[in-house]
């Protein structure tokens, strides 16, 4: 089956072979390639004409997307299920993928979002006590078209030098020129407004774990939210009400939340005007605000700053950033292709008072966080919730909780 570039990959019915494999996969060590007798040829064609040959990994068919690379050594399941990768073909630079299989606990959302998957060498066996399925089985079950090829290093270096671009993987088209024509007709990531394609249809609530009392209510605007973010807030005593992307500022404020969170998500922040308006409504009200990744870009725009596309982005689990106030360095999990342009040399004026760049990426000087100095609002371009990645920056959630505490105390003092 083929996944088109704009529709989410449909759930693909398992093949008889995969079914048989599932039944025999009762142990946690399983052959990962046993369900495929013949290797099916596949091609990867880039917008600029570069062609890579490999074999099918996952579902057979044809798929399009922006091709990007991820440098994390672990966390493939979190990558696949992160909604921010919607419409992207992800290349894993780690050479051996699938070793720990797939389980029902590590997913960051209810499905795989990458539009295509490129690996060097799929693991031949799965060996992990938590594994429930093989990776290839999961890719097939969800209709995700992938390719295994020996040149992932050459491919990554090409994208680093030329920048990310559109691409396609196909097991049905054998003529690269014909496939390239379709790549050139597929949509660009610049200008793509995608939150509406990934957001929850209905609001839902994430409650603190047993034994943790509820201290705050947080409204979370789901622009493509990862499951771990409301979890990190819930662990700190927040009851998190997750809301569809189109929820207005009035509707959010009517819930009387202690704080408002704007999530990560796919697409170009420059195309998300409606969300920028929503955030301005929250800033006007003075309610404490936290943004992560896409949420950081939206905060930049709400403050009147511009966003721009990076040549090849940051996707991995070991990106160093420096906190400007303290000089402290954090190793962070990141996944972004756009960034905010802001003055790096100290506080600057915005319609909401003074703001500053709170973190700077140490690899390339990119803005990795913003903080308002006169209102309770902060955001990070990196992922303090990790999933996967280091937990260095989890104190961002503590700062948000401190902002909500101070805001509540100030409101109570004003009322008294
Ligand atoms: N993880 C994210 O929120 C990504 C934000 C945005 N889509 C980007 O690529 O920069």
Automatic annotation (TrEMBL):
Keyword ATP-binding on entry: yes
Function, as annotated: Small subunit of the glutamine-dependent carbamoyl phosphate synthetase (CPSase). CPSase catalyzes the formation of carbamoyl phosphate from the ammonia moiety of glutamine, carbonate, and phosphate donated by ATP, constituting the first step of 2 biosynthetic pathways, one leading to arginine and/or urea and the other to pyrimidine nucleotides. The small subunit (glutamine amidotransferase) binds and cleaves glutamine to supply the large subunit with the substrate ammonia.
Identification of the protein by name: Carbamoyl phosphate synthase small chain
Gene Ontology molecular function: ATP binding; carbamoyl-phosphate synthase (glutamine-hydrolyzing) activity
Pathway the protein acts in: Pyrimidine metabolism; UMP biosynthesis via de novo pathway; (S)-dihydroorotate from bicarbonate: step 1/3; Amino-acid biosynthesis; L-arginine biosynthesis; carbamoyl phosphate from bicarbonate: step 1/1
GO terms for biological process, alphabetical: 'de novo' pyrimidine nucleobase biosynthetic process; 'de novo' UMP biosynthetic process; glutamine metabolic process; L-arginine biosynthetic process
Keyword flag ATP-binding: yes
PANTHER family (alphabetical): CARBAMOYL-PHOSPHATE SYNTHASE SMALL CHAIN, MULTIFUNCTIONAL TRYPTOPHAN BIOSYNTHESIS PROTEIN-RELATED
CDD domains per record: GATase1_CPSase
The organism of origin for this protein: Thermobifida fusca TM51
